[in-house]
Design a protein that fits this description.
By secondary structure, the protein is mostly helical. It is about 85% helix and about 0% strand.
Length: about 140
């Protein structure tokens, strides 16, 4: 178990050395020319080492970028819904036009149906009249 305690001490020492190296590197390089403001919903805690603060900033900025993309997808969805509503209104107009057209076809069919039956009745009456005239002519010739 002595090796585990040695490993822990070495790891802790390495972490402290790592933090110091990063802090020295950060100071030697200087702060970035462009610093982006943090999103309004987070703020740094007191005493956070620079590496932790930079990591937290990077992660929160990635999350914020994703959140903004999600919001823009919502805006696109609203636009799609508006287009869908407009298309639905056009569909309702088209359906009303089709119903009117179908009703007009039915009225035309009704008129043509009646006209055909009227013609059939007229033709039947003409045949009857012709047959009666023929029969009378035949009867008149035989007497």
């Amino acid at each position: 178990m002595g090796s585990i305690e040695t490993l822990r001490k070495n790891t802790e020492t390495d972490q402290v050395r790592f933090d110091v190296e990063i802090e020295n590197t950060t100071h030697s390089v200087g702060s970035p020319a462009i610093t982006l403001p943090l999103p309004h919903y987070v703020e740094h805690q007191d005493g956070v080492p620079p590496v932790g603060a930079l990591s937290a900033e990077a992660v929160v900025r990635d999350y914020e970028a994703a959140a903004q993309e999600i919001e823009s997808m919502g805006a696109e969805l609203v636009d799609a819904a508006k287009k869908c509503e407009a298309m639905t209104a056009e569909v309702h107009t088209a359906i009303a036009y089709m119903r009117d057209t179908a009703a007009a076809y039915r009225e035309d069919a009704k008129k043509i149906f009646k006209r055909i039956e009227d013609c059939a009745l007229f033709t039947q009456n003409v045949r009857r009249t012709c047959e009666e005239v023929k029969r009378k002519m035949v009867e008149g010739n035989t007497t």
